Amino acid sequence: MTTIVYPTLSRAPQSVEIGLKSNSQILVSPLSGDTQTLELPGARWTLTFSYTDLVRADAAELEAFLAQLRGQANRARVPVWGRVLPRGSWLGTPLVKGGSQTGASLACDGFTAGATVKRGDMLNIGTAGELKRVVTDATADGSGNLTLAFEPPLRVSPADNAALVAFAPVVPLMIPSDPHLKTTIGQGDRSDVALDLVELFA
Prior knowledge:
The protein has one helix at residues 56-69, and strands at residues 3-5, 15-21, 24-28, 35-39, 44-54, 75-79, 92-96, 105-111, 116-117, 122-125, 130-134, 138-139, 146-151, 164-165, 170-174, 184-185, 191-199. It is mainly beta. The chain has two domains: 3-81 and 171-199, Phosphorylase Kinase, domain 1 (2-Layer Sandwich); 92-167, Elongation Factor Tu (Ef-tu), domain 3. A hairpin with a 6-residue loop joins strand 3 (24-28) and strand 4 (35-39).
């Protein structure tokens, strides 16, 4: 298994859909009709994107990338288009403060005093690169400490001093099934490409 880096193209996709597929079960009593919901771990990001009217050079890069994935054999690291820059300032060198943290919040340090994070900001956490979306605004105190609240919850506890990356975050993805990948080639050697990907758990 090899991780393939997404190629640099001359432009971003025309259409991008990023979603978070929760993992829950609904149990309905056959007697009373009462409904219970059970939340399970394993929420996954999904990414659907499409290009239209690609010039040949871009189409060639993308076709080679898709071929290198070999269906589900290899993995991809893909940009989170449209969320490359955070709304907050994220000044300083944000790090995880202390190991063995779990759940949907994280004690952090290394921020510049007064640095901000904003709801909706997206980031990668630590070497596992888990992608998270901030759900609560926060401001670093005078010592650069800040508590980060996000979704989905951590799958792996990050190490102390693991980096927080909010500029140009990426998401580790794979093709959800072995498809027959095709490029639509139109007049003037222009191409259309569309792809669905789902987050990979390490």
